[in-house]
C-alpha cells in the first residue's frame, strides 16, 4: 500500500490512474445512456398499451393511427435528446480531461525539473565552498612558495565567483517568480561595461581565449548589474560547454539602427529542437547521467527575462562551421564619440 502511495506521489502512477478514471467515467456515461434508452422503450410500450386500452383501433382507426404516430414521434424526440445531451456531455468530459491531463503533465515535469535543480544546486553550492576551504587550509598549514600560494588564491577566487554567480541567479529567479524584480536603469557606457566584463572573465579564465570586438562609445539605458549577469551567464556557458583552448568572441555593434550583442563560440552547438527549450526555467539539455558540465538550468532563463525587461530579444543561432551564436538585439541606444 505504501509503495502505491509512493508511486502516486512521485507521479509514476498518475497516468494509469488517470486513464482508468477516464475510461470508468466514459463507461458510466455509456451505461447511463443505455438505461435511458431502455426506459424510453418502456415508456413507449406503456403508452402503446394505454392507447390500445383507450382507443379501439377497429372502431376509431384514424384516432388510433394519429395517437400511434404521436407515440413514435415522442420516442424519436427522446432518442434525439438523449443522444444530443450525451454527445455534449462526452465532449465536455473529453475536453476537460485533456485540459486536466495537460496541467498534470506540466506540473509533474516542473516538479521533476525542480528536483533535478535542487540536486544540482546543492552540489553546485557545496563544491566551491569545499574547494575554497581546502585551498585556505592548505595555505595556512603548509609553507608554500609564492607561486603556489598565488595559484591556490586564484583558484579560490574562481570558486567564489562561481558561487557568487549561482547565488545571483537563484535570488534573481525567485524575484522573477514573485514579480518583484525591478530594474535600476541609468545611462550606461555599454561598450565600456561589456569590455570590462569580458576582460574580467578573461583574467580569471586560462582555459579559453575570450576575444572582444566591441564598437566604442555605445550608450544605453540599462541596469548595469543585470547586464553583467547576462554577460557572465553567456560567456561562462561558452566556457563550460566548449572544449578548452577554443576561442570565444564577444561582439557589440550597431546594425540597421539596432544594437547587436553576440557571444559566439565554436563548441558542440545546440540542436534545433532544443533551441527554444534552453530558455525555459531549470531546462538543461540531456539527462543527469549524460551531462558532464554542472549547472542549474537558470542562466538562460534569467538572461532572456533580463533582456525582455530591457525591451530586447535574444535568439540562438548556429555558428559556422560549428558552435553557437547567442544574439541579443536592443534598441534605444546612443552613440557618443570617445
Ligand atoms: P546551465 O548551464 O546551468 O545548465 P543554462 O540555462 O545556462 O543552464 O543553459 C541551458 C542549457 O543550454 C545547458 O544545460 C546547455 O545544455 C545548453 N547551452 C547553453 N549554452 C551553451 C553553449 N554555448 N553551447 C552548447 N550548449 C549550451
Automatic annotation (TrEMBL):
Domain Histidine kinase: 120-334
PROSITE patterns: HIS_KIN (PS50109)
Record bears the keyword Nucleus: no
CDD domains: HATPase, HisKA
GO terms assigned for molecular function: ATP binding
EC number: 2.7.13.3
Record key words, sorted: ATP-binding, Kinase, Membrane, Nucleotide-binding, Phosphoprotein, Transferase, Transmembrane, Transmembrane helix, Two-component regulatory system
Catalysed reactions, as listed in the record: ATP + protein L-histidine = ADP + protein N-phospho-L-histidine
Keyword Amino-acid biosynthesis in annotation: no
Origin superkingdom: Bacteria
Transmembrane segments: 17-37, 82-101
Pfam families, per the entry: HATPase_c, HisKA
InterPro entries for the chain: BphY/WalK/GraS-like, HATPase_C_sf, HATPase_dom, His_kinase_dom, HisK_dim/P_dom, HisK_dim/P_sf, Sig_transdc_His_kin-like_C
Span of the signal peptide: none
Protein name as catalogued: histidine kinase
Organism: Chitinophaga horti
Lineage, opening ranks: Bacteria, Pseudomonadati, Bacteroidota, Chitinophagia, Chitinophagales
Amino acid at each position: 500500500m505504501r509503495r502505491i502511495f509512493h508511486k502516486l506521489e512521485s507521479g509514476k502512477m498518475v497516468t494509469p490512474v488517470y486513464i482508468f478514471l477516464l475510461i470508468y467515467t466514459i463507461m458510466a456515461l455509456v451505461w447511463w445512456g443505455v438505461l435511458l434508452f431502455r426506459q424510453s422503450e418502456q415508456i413507449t410500450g406503456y403508452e402503446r398499451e394505454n392507447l390500445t386500452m383507450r382507443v379501439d383501433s377497429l372502431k376509431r382507426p384514424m384516432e388510433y393511427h394519429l395517437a400511434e404516430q404521436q407515440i413514435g414521434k415522442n420516442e424519436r424526440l427522446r432518442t434525439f435528446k438523449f443522444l444530443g445531451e450525451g454527445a455534449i456531455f462526452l465532449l465536455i468530459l473529453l475536453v476537460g480531461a485533456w485540459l486536466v491531463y495537460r496541467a498534470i503533465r506540466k506540473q509533474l515535469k516542473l516538479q521533476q525539473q525542480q528536483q533535478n535543480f535542487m540536486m544540482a544546486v546543492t552540489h553546485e553550492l557545496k563544491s566551491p565552498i569545499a574547494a575554497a576551504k581546502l585551498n585556505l587550509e592548505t595555505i595556512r598549514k603548509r609553507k608554500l612558495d609564492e607561486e603556489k600560494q598565488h595559484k591556490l588564491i586564484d583558484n579560490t577566487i574562481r570558486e567564489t565567483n562561481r558561487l557568487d554567480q549561482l547565488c545571483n541567479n537563484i535570488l534573481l529567479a525567485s524575484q522573477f517568480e514573485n514579480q518583484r524584480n525591478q530594474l535600476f536603469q541609468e545611462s550606461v557606457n555599454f561598450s565600456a561595461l561589456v569590455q570590462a566584463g569580458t576582460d574580467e572573465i578573461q583574467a580569471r579564465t586560462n582555459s579559453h581565449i575570450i576575444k572582444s570586438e566591441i564598437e566604442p562609445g555605445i550608450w544605453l539605458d540599462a541596469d548595469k548589474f543585470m547586464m553583467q549577469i547576462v554577460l557572465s551567464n553567456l560567456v561562462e556557458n561558452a566556457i563550460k560547454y566548449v572544449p578548452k583552448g577554443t576561442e570565444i568572441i564577444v561582439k557589440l555593434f550597431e546594425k540597421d539602427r539596432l544594437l547587436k550583442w553576440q557571444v559566439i563560440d565554436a563548441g558542440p552547438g545546440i540542436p534545433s529542437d532544443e533551441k527554444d527549450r534552453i530558455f525555459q526555467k531549470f531546462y538543461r539539455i540531456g539527462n543527469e547521467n549524460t551531462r558532464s558540465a554542472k549547472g542549474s538550468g537558470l542562466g538562460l532563463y534569467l538572461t532572456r527575462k533580463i533582456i525582455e525587461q530591457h525591451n530586447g530579444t535574444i535568439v540562438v543561432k548556429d555558428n559556422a562551421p560549428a558552435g553557437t551564436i547567442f544574439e541579443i538585439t536592443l534598441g534605444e541606444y546612443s552613440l557618443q564619440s570617445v
